[in-house]
């Protein structure tokens, strides 16, 4: 989800959207400018409509699909949006988290801000995996207030406890809530569903790298028995049958395996206005190593422990999926392309049932859409 930086940055750099009118003479050109803008808009809408009939991945791998994906994502993260620029310093400081003496973590370990040793669980399900013995664990990072998204998942793919005879477990990870009342509600929800994990970092868009590393820590320490895990965002559709078929295939490695939507040769965004801006102090190289788009990536469950360990050597930055990519590079593990890359789709375009029957995962627009599509896909044909 942090990936469309390229396109967006370019668009902003060239003042394509924002200051078109301002750049072009402050004269009588208003009408002309307006007309030009309108034309651009009409063209874009037409292009989007046209392309959405096809596979976005195939037609516009790096430009328009990314922009659209971006827009879908923006709805979700808008409320959590924080000025990345002003908050880069958080990730620069090592040991920026004040340790309380009552904390269970090892106080002598002072890693960078994203290392999970800095945090502890407030809500935990430490026995869930020994009780459930899952083959696959779906780990969903979500903001505390996104109850609707959690409930949509609970009534769809999160409610599939067994797929092709293999146990599947879905858990949500949140950070700190804003206040006591929200915390109380969350604890109630936890008692009711027993599927919430909460860690004591500030829950924000900027802090998604911390969230991901805490997910890896939970898998490594509370669920080593699982064979595979998936980090999957709360606005995703998952076809568990297809995912299970991939995981049970004799060609799928049981170790050092990670797959999803591959991001190759991606530039780091240095435009300070971008949401995906990363300072050179945090990440000096101009390109990210190959990584998997954060919307949903699947991995053999030996990796979480290795990633947490490697992350001690990899300075934190705020692009969670690229950060995991940097840890994989440190480990010398190369992300795998899925047997059918079109099964990990950023954007599906216009709803077609047969596409959702074929795919493994794709981004949706709303929790309601997940419920609607789920119902439609599950109905006997
Ligand atoms: C805490 O971490 C230090 C340094 O990594 C290690 O030497 C020590 O054994 C750890 N203590 C505990 C209780 O885990
Ligand atoms: C989950 O599925 C079971 C049937 O398998 C159903 O009884 C239950 O209501 C479902 N839970 C939700 C939250 O939809
Ligand atoms: C990220 O989390 C850390 C640890 O809770 C916190 O100190 C920091 O303020 C957070 N940053 C943002 C931007 O939320
Ligand atoms: C990587 O991207 C750069 C432009 O940013 C391009 O010049 C180069 O050819 C690309 N390399 C590969 C292997 O695609
Ligand atoms: C501009 C901005 O959003 N700054 C945020 C940086 O992070 C702190 C928490 O560490 C927030 O309180 C600020 O609002």
TrEMBL record:
Source domain of life: Eukaryota
Membrane topology classification: Single-pass type II membrane protein
This protein's UniProt keywords: Glycoprotein, Glycosyltransferase, Golgi apparatus, Lipid metabolism, Membrane, Signal-anchor, Transferase, Transmembrane, Transmembrane helix
Single Gene Ontology MF annotation: N-acetyl-beta-D-glucosaminide beta-(1,3)-galactosyltransferase activity
InterPro entries: Glyco_trans_31
The keyword Glycoprotein belongs to this UniProt entry's keyword annotation: yes
Localization in the cell: Golgi apparatus membrane
Stretches that traverse the bilayer: 34-52
Pfam families reported for this sequence: Galactosyl_T
Pathway: Protein modification; protein glycosylation
One GO term (biological process): lipid metabolic process
EC number(s) per entry: 2.4.1.-
GO cellular component: Golgi membrane
Family designation: Belongs to the glycosyltransferase 31 family.
Protein name according to UniProt: Hexosyltransferase
Protein's organism: Carassius auratus (Goldfish)
The organism's taxonomic lineage, starting at the top: Eukaryota, Metazoa, Chordata, Craniata, Vertebrata
């Amino acid at each position: 989800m942090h990936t469309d930086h390229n396109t967006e940055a370019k668009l902003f750099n060239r003042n394509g959207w924002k200051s078109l009118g301002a750049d072009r003479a402050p004269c009588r050109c208003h009408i002309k400018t307006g007309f030009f803008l309108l034309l651009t808009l009409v063209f874009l809408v037409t292009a989007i409509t046209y392309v959405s009939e096809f596979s976005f991945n195939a037609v516009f791998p790096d430009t328009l699909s990314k922009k659209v994906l971006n827009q879908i994502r923006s709805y979700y993260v808008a409320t959590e949006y924080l000025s990345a620029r002003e908050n880069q310093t958080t990730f620069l400081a090592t040991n920026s988290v004040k340790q309380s003496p009552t904390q269970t973590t090892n106080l002598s370990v002072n890693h960078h801000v994203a290392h999970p040793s800095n945090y502890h669980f407030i809500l935990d399900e430490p026995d869930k995996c020994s009780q459930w013995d899952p083959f696959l664990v779906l780990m969903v990072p979500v903001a505390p207030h996104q109850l609707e998204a959690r409930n949509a998942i609970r009534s769809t793919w999160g409610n599939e406890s067994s797929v092709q005879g293999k146990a599947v477990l879905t858990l949500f990870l949140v950070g700190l809530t804003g206040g006591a009342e929200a915390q109380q509600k969350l604890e109630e929800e936890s008692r009711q569903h027993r599927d919430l994990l909460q860690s004591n970092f500030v829950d924000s868009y900027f802090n998604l790298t911390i969230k991901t590393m805490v997910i890896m820590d939970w898998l490594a320490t509370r669920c080593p028995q699982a064979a595979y895990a998936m980090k999957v965002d709360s606005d995703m559709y998952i076809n568990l049958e297809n995912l299970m078929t991939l995981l049970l295939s004799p060609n799928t490695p049981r170790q050092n395996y990670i797959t999803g939507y591959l991001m190759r040769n991606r530039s780091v965004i240095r435009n300070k206005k971008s949401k995906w801006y990363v300072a050179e102090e945090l990440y000096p190289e101009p390109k990210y190593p190959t990584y998997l788009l954060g919307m949903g990536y699947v991995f053999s469950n030996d990796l979480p422990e290795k990633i947490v360990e490697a992350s001690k050597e990899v300075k934190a930055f705020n692009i969670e999926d690229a950060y995991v990519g940097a840890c994989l590079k440190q480990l010398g593990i190369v992300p795998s392309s899925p047997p059918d890359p079109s099964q990990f789709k950023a954007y599906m375009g216009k709803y077609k049932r047969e596409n959702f029957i074929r795919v493994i995962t794709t981004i949706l627009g709303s929790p309601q859409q997940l419920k609607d599509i789920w119902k439609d896909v599950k109905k006997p044909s």
